[in-house]
Amino acid sequence: MMTTRKWKLTSKDIEEPISEEVKNTLEEIKIALTYGEVIGLPTETVYGLAGDARNAEAIHKIFVAKGRPGDNPLIVHIHDTKQMETFVEPVHENVKKLMEAFWPGPISFILPLKGDYISSNVVAELDSIAVRMPSHPVGRKVLQYADIPLAAPSANLSGKPSPTSSDHVYEDLDGKIYGVIESEPAEYGLESTVLDCTQFPYRIARPGAISITQLREVLKEDIERHRDTSERPISPGMKYKHYAPRQPLTVFFGNMNAGSKALPYDKNKKTGVIAPETMREYFKEDVVFVSLCKDEASYREASKNLYAALRFMDSSDVEEIFIYGFDMNDETEALMNRIYKATGNTVIRG
Fold it and tell me: Where does the YrdC-like domain start and stop, copy by copy (predicted)?
């Protein structure tokens, strides 16, 4: 088993002028990536497991470390749109508008693939490729310094909750990857919006922080909403169960004032509940309660904390978990998409 290296790089560390120590760290990371190693990379959505998208060996290491199905494509991360010219067909003016509006940021675009510059196992033999430009200062600095396109799915074991901190990456991948950058936790906490621009009207392949309303406001044209599908995935998160702890997880809706009476607890099992802090008082003392956010309207906070809450439960001794379901709207679509994926659509309505 390899020893996973740790590099500490914060946003403050990379402010100009950067120190020689930081330059040496960036150089070490660049060399590792150039020689086909994979690393835990901070982004504003979740931590990514990054490797040279041109290098088949590096991409193989990503799939092996994660235990990821081979037909599940990866998103390629860049720091400049000029990088796309080597592997993406010329983009439509509408796509350029969206990129100008939301990049760098938490959105990926599925675009027509060009040539064989990118390793074929990045795109799972598809004729399209998902591309993203992250906004996390340290993630961007690494992309700029290495100056190579990086394939970077979430840095977790496949199927488990995604990592929003370097500690989460260590939990899953210590000894399986070359190194991890210790930096600020993810700002958003959910994976990027993925917009399929290979069809018209454009369609959301995976909901994220950038909502359909925001996209329509920029484009002034129709965009199709996300729909679950069993077809061959063109984007991560479309086909397989994701984000799940090891215990059975059920989402509950409705008025929970009744607390323990409202949920079908198994008296012989230790139970966990993930819900807004305002609901804590309604549950019996022997329930393991994890606060997801301040209240039912704190959608952004809930999104940021979701995976950490699931990971806490996953590492606890609870045997069953119930999680609060938020009312569906533009702001909660991505959050509820991840919750449903984690539960397998097991639902209780109060």
Answer: 23-210
